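Subgroup meeting minutes
Present: P.N., E.W., G.H.
Scribe: E.W.

1. P.N. recapped why we're keeping a running log of single-chain structure predictions: easier to compare across weeks, and new members can see raw inputs and outputs side by side.
2. G.H. added today's entry (242 aa).
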Amino acid sequence: MLSHIFLDSNGQFQWASVAAITSIITALVSVYVAVNSHLNNKKSQKLQRELNDEALKLQRELNRDNFKGNIVAKARIEWIQEVRKKSVDFISACNRLFTYIKNENTFDLKIVEELKSDVKRNATLLILYFGPDNGKNKNNDLIVYLIDLLSSKLLNKDGYYDKQHIILLEDYVDVLRDFLRIYFKAEWKRANREISDEEVQIYLEKNEYYVRIMNICERNLACYEEWVENFYDQLEEENNKS
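Output recorded in log:
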């Protein structure tokens, strides 16, 4: 049968037939390549669309996280700035009372009461910024303890102030000031995302003075926490009686 295709009646080879068959094969190959290329293009386009969708989804999530992160960072920075102001107000109120008490030339009870009222007001405002601590760290608890210690000693009802006791309280004001300075620096770094939430305590514990302050106040802080616990136990007991 092939001889009829490639040979004529005289037995001569027909090159035209070869050319025709070659053209047909080439056409079929071209069609196959075109169809296959079309299918591959469709697959590639589908894959590209899926990749684009995933990239867009990821970008949206990143934008949302950045937006949330910026809001949190802004809130923290505002909190730091506000607490710094309240800290200055409280420490200044304490120092004004110290200065007046140590002045032997004059002692006006009315002025003393005004200065004590200023200490009490600023102590209350400052304490409200520090909620209970979560976890093992006692940073907020220590700050509240120092504020309460200073305010309670300065607001004594007897109106008598021992000079040596005043010197000790002045030292505690310096301790509070130094602790807040270290604490605010760590919070500032967290607000600016230089350190993560989990790294804040690690950063604090690398500071020599932070460690020394915590060690100095550890026992008194434990006693203060026990006192607070007993206070609410008694309050709860009295409430149950009524």
